[in-house]
Design a protein that fits this description.
- This protein has a six-stranded mixed beta sheet. A two-stranded antiparallel sheet has the order 1-2.
- The chain starts with a helix and ends with a strand.
- The protein is built from 20 helices and eight strands.
- The chain is of the alpha+beta class and 576 residues long.
- Strand 1 and strand 2 form a beta hairpin.
- Helix 8 packs across helix 9, helix 13 crosses helix 14 and helix 17 packs across helix 18.
- The chain has four domains: 54 residues; 81 residues, no CATH class; 156 residues, no CATH class; 128 residues, Aminopeptidase (3-Layer(aba) Sandwich).
Length: 576
Amino acid sequence: MPKTQNKRKKGRHRGASARANTDLMAHIASLDLETVESYKTWCRDNGLKGAVNKGWQERRHERQLAQKLKQSESVDAEVLVHVKSMNLNSLEDYQNWCTSHGLSPAAHKSPHQRKKELELSIRVKGEAALAGMKRHSRRPRDTIDLLYKGDIDRQELRHDHLLKIHDAFAHPGLDAHGREAFLNLLLHVEQNGDLFGTKPAISVLGPQEGNTFIEGLRALASHYRLRIRPLDLWKSDSHNSRRQFGSLARHLLAKYDVPVFMDAAWFRTESEETSRQQNWFVHIGTGQNIRTSDIPVQLTKKMAHLFLQAPDQYTIEEALRWGQILGLEGEQPLVRTVIGTRLGTTFENEDFWKTVIHFFVNNPMLDPDHVGPIVDFIYNQKYVPQEIAQPGGEILQLPPAQPNFSVKSRSILKLLNQVEQWHRQLARDTRLPHRQWEPSGLDPLEMEENSSGSGEKVQWSIKELLSTKQLQDEGKAMGHCVGSYAQNCQKGNTSIWSMQVGFETGSPYRVMTIAVNSSRRITQARGRYNALPSGKLPNGSKRKVIGRDYAAYLRHSKRILFHWREQESLTMSLRA
């Protein structure tokens, strides 16, 4: 009997202990803690006993304390969000700001009080910015000097030209003497010229980095060691900014005449090639022959002479082609066509491409409108690796179709036939791998207008093509070789756009295909079968019928293209 009683007492003891442990762990969990040790630590950190066996009153007090701590942390987080919204860095900065504006420095405030503080902060900053703009406008020389010293924060600047000047002073290409030379240029120009505009200085180069007069002045400043005349002796003799800059550059660096198109050397995105072209400017300006510089083209004496006579609006690359082609007795229409192709921007594999230019010159009866398609065909056949999609989805990589392609002893008629066959093959080739690429960043165009004939609503659009499938569909519908641009699109060198016209009834149809290079320049704008926007087909084309209605819309497309060029600040090759 006594043994039975002892067993019952022991069992009740184990049950009470288990319930006590369960209650303890539940209490610990209510405090957002996990273990007994973390509970003891929490108690000690908050000035409480670290014992685990406590009455219900003590545990209730602990839960209330934990709740207050949570609410305090939440309020602190809200305070920090409010401080950040006012563009302040810390609670101390916030309290100092409140004190300086006659407000309470207390951190815990109502939503209404915080809203008023934020509104006051915005108003104060706006007034400071306005005062700064007036100060910078009234005393530009002082502002330039402060920018040179680094005493004005970029966030304080509101004028585009001051932002450009700030960034130019921080450019890594300027050493200490270069920064001082840039400062002196800016101060002198501020009094004697008008070179603080931020629009593209060379329109044909488009809105690329480096193409403003301020950045051009920075590039001039970096050549301070080569100056041949004092800056103080220069005065502007023109109201035209482009002429002012050209006059300044020649005053500082040139003893002899330098052609106007060479000014483009100072407005290019910084690169090794840009530095080379700036050296060509100095080379010519010191009386040396362009043939003795490191140009990528071999020029004869005649070619070098003609190079110096290239039109003012040409780029330096185009001027080199001008001298080269005219020096070979080629005609100006051929020059304008060649510089509208990839040969107008690059001299890669020049030893081969000069033989192609000889070929064009030696066939003077070739319609210049054929030149672009021929260059595309030759480049694709000789330099572009073939990619063929296999049934399982694998892509078979093959060498270019004709890596040993040569125009030597080649018949122009046979070459035109090959180009025509290549166009047809591209249109029906289903083995091309499916590829997609990222948009170029240019915006599409949507325009609605009334038809001049029926009064029906006409919807014009220009949209980017972003896959090999879309290029293939475009080439098939338009009867040209746009499908060959896939790799250039994927590399970001070119973007292809389709201009289409739609009506209230019926489906839209394609009018023009447009190619834009990475410098925001339209290099090709062709209709069906490579027709020009005027509706003219290349002479000798086997596909001469494009339809009267289509020809009318193609001629009208020039106006739509102009709107898009204006919208996106695009330039255009002379014979795109």
